[in-house]
Amino acid sequence: MLEAPIIRFENVTKFYDSETTVLDNINFELERGKFYTLLGPSGCGKTTILRLIAGFMQPSSGNIYLNGKLINHVPANERQVNTVFQDYALFPHLNVFENIAFGLRIKKLGKKVIEEKVIEALKFVNLDGFENREIAEMSGGQRQRVAIARAIVNDPEIILLDEPLSALDLKLRSEMQYELRELQQRLGKTFIFVTHDQEEALAMSDEIFVLNEGQVEQNGTPKDIYDEPINRFVADFIGESNIVAGTMVADFRVHIDGNEFDCVDQGLNPNEKVDIVIRPEDLEITSVENGKMKVKVDTQLFRGVHYELSTYDEAGNEWLVHSTKEAEVGSSIGLNFDPEAIHVMRLNETEEDFDKRLESYGEEAYAK
Predict the structure, then answer these.
(1) For the chain, which domains are there?
(2) Residues in CB range of 343: below 8 A, 6 or more apart
């Protein structure tokens, strides 16, 4: 018998008033013991999904299941779910031990059991010996570990994390990404992590759900989402992308601005208008004579491990290039790319809007 998904959303809609729909008929299933990330811009519904799972709100319609059991109206304190909030929500008047022990005391566990569980949780987050420390005396990273320890001490099935790294500086944020991922693997729990940072999502997740305007645009592994975005929104939101208008000539052949190129995509209609994605790191600088396309260099920035070039072709399309080679600003260069670097996407706009977008490019950018 197949194990039921740990979480299942079935036609879930959430609205706050008659004109504000936050989630629009959401359907998905989450397996046990994986690290999931809900990724998307502000207001797309990420935190609302967490709050629905936690029991802080109920769906306007549809059903939510935990281990196959309907939980729409199950109170938050009766769900095997704990949340790490963005501001950590620690009690400033309690020390580390008392913050972590708070939920255990509500359950009226024995003093010895509470002490054992708190000490074990502190070891898990590398804070053993900090039990008597005051919250005000701790750094941002240490406070976050306390919040995580408080979440795991009750042995929940699911841990929800609502942008818990957003208040940390860049270096500490990177360190905590590794720590959270390692912690999830050691615990074997289901983590559901909310962020609007695509690099964070790519680095930490088993599976990513990309949300936009209350709907799931695409879900899959980080590699799937990055290499095979389903539409323009996902391609533009996940990583840096060159997205240009094109036409599918036939299987394995695409037309871009007067030129035809080999690709690896098939199954679209001949002469179907499409969007083309080529990642900046897949473009190779060469001479104009040897390049598949000719571009003019507009700006160049040094990013430490590579140069970032903003270039334009004769049709006005911008091509962002990541390269270890330098190029002179204002010069013309050639760009090469493999057929595997071209990703073809069906339009998520009308052909009329597509044509208007194509007309708007013009040649102004190339001329400057």
Answers:
(1) 7-227 (3.40.50.300), 241-367 (2.40.50.140)
(2) 227, 228, 229, 235, 265, 276, 277, 278
